[in-house]
Write a structure and sequence with these properties.
Elements: H1 2-17, E1 22-25, H2 29-32, H3 34-43, E2 46-50, H4 59-73, H5 86-100, E3 138-141
Length: about 140
């Protein structure tokens, strides 16, 4: 099931932003599933899995998780006016990412917002990839 949720999100991301050339994921069950690896390989996407014991490699996603929890999910638990349906949460998340998060300046983008970047520069660039010294901490599945 986690792989189906991830693949659904991947489809929406590709539909909205275009096909990426590289995808960096942690060791979550949906990210290491055979179907995920196979789909990304069929799309020609280089899949890089971060090493589980190397949390420094997950900094950006951990920052996203904290931001999402603080901005989007805070206060939603057990509120009667919040629809508990997963589809409703997906709509909230989609709105948050497009209308709020992507419009904000990001420190990692030198103060630019993701929405202000040309589509071609939204894919992984060398400055976003791990340094050569850290590359031995990652496993790669060629796409």
């Amino acid at each position: 099931m986690p792989d189906r949720l991830f693949l659904r999100g991947l489809y929406e991301t590709i539909r909205t932003c275009g096909l990426m050339s590289i995808l960096y994921l942690d060791q979550g069950p949906g990210f290491i599933a055979e179907s995920t690896v196979r789909v990304l390989a069929n799309l020609g996407v280089l899949l890089i899995h971060g090493e589980a014991a190397y949390p420094e490699g997950h900094g950006k996603i951990e920052r996203w998780n904290r931001t999402c929890l603080a901005d989007l999910l805070r206060g939603l638990d057990r509120r009667p006016d919040v629809d508990p349906d997963c589809g409703a949460l997906e709509l909230r998340l989609r709105h948050y990412v497009r209308e709020i998060y992507n419009q904000r300046p990001h420190e990692s983008l030198a103060g630019d917002s993701p929405a202000s970047l040309p589509t071609s520069s939204r894919s992984a660039s060398p400055k976003m990839m791990p340094s050569c010294a850290a590359s031995s901490r990652f496993t790669s599945t060629a796409g």
